């Protein structure tokens, strides 16, 4: 089992910044992808950013504003978020995927006020 714990969410004004963290523990795999997803009220969960062996991919809506990174040990995933807008308000979830194994954290709330 892989355990994921997100932190760093909160309330921020439009134009502000936040850094989310996702701690990874448990029985991890040598090959995996990690990413961030978000779910706004009344909407489906959507992809935000992916970290895959050092390669990254972003949703168009966050490209240029968000940066996904990983610690060297691979046990912490980060999401740097800048120029936040109210449209970024959502619960942000960390995801860990290896083969058919797929794990989610409990989520951290990000609220951007206008």
Describe this structure in words.
The protein is mainly beta. It is built from no helices and 11 strands. It has strands spanning 2-7, 10-13, 18-26, 33-39, 46-52, 55-58, 66-70, 76-81, 90-98, 101-104, 108-113. Strands 2, 4, 5, 6, 9, 10 and 11 form a 7-stranded mixed sheet that branches. A 4-stranded antiparallel sheet has the order 1-3-8-7, with no helix packed on it. The relative contact order is 0.33.
Which properties best describe this structure?
seven-stranded mixed β-sheet; mainly beta
The Cα radius of gyration reads: 13 Å
Backbone structural class? mainly beta
Mean pLDDT: 95
Q: Biggest β-sheet, characterized?
A: 7 strands, mixed
Order of helices and strands: EEEEEEEEEEE
Number of helices: 0
Which regions are unreliable across 5 or more consecutive residues at pLDDT < 50?
none
Overall geometry comes to globular
Number of strands: 11
**Strand content bin:** over 45%
Summarize the model shown.
With 114 residues, this protein is mostly beta strands. It has strands at 2-7, 10-13, 18-26, 33-39, 46-52, 55-58, 66-70, 76-81, 90-98, 101-104, 108-113.
Architecture blueprint of SSEs:
Blueprint: E1 2-7, E2 10-13, E3 18-26, E4 33-39, E5 46-52, E6 55-58, E7 66-70, E8 76-81, E9 90-98, E10 101-104, E11 108-113
Parallel strand pairs: 2-11
Antiparallel strand pairs: 1-3, 3-8, 4-5, 4-9, 5-6, 7-8, 9-10, 9-11
């Amino acid at each position: 089992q892989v355990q994921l714990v997100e932190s760093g969410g909160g309330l921020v004004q439009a134009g502000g910044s936040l850094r989310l963290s996702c701690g990874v523990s448990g029985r991890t795999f040598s090959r995996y992808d990690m990413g961030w997803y978000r779910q706004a009220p009344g909407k489906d969960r959507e992809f935000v950013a992916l970290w895959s062996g050092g390669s990254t991919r972003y949703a168009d809506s966050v490209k240029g504003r968000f940066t996904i990174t990983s610690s060297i040990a691979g046990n912490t995933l980060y999401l740097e978020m800048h120029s936040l807008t109210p449209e970024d308000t959502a619960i942000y979830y960390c995801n860990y995927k290896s083969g058919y194994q797929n794990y989610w954290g409990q989520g951290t709330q990000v609220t951007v006020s206008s």
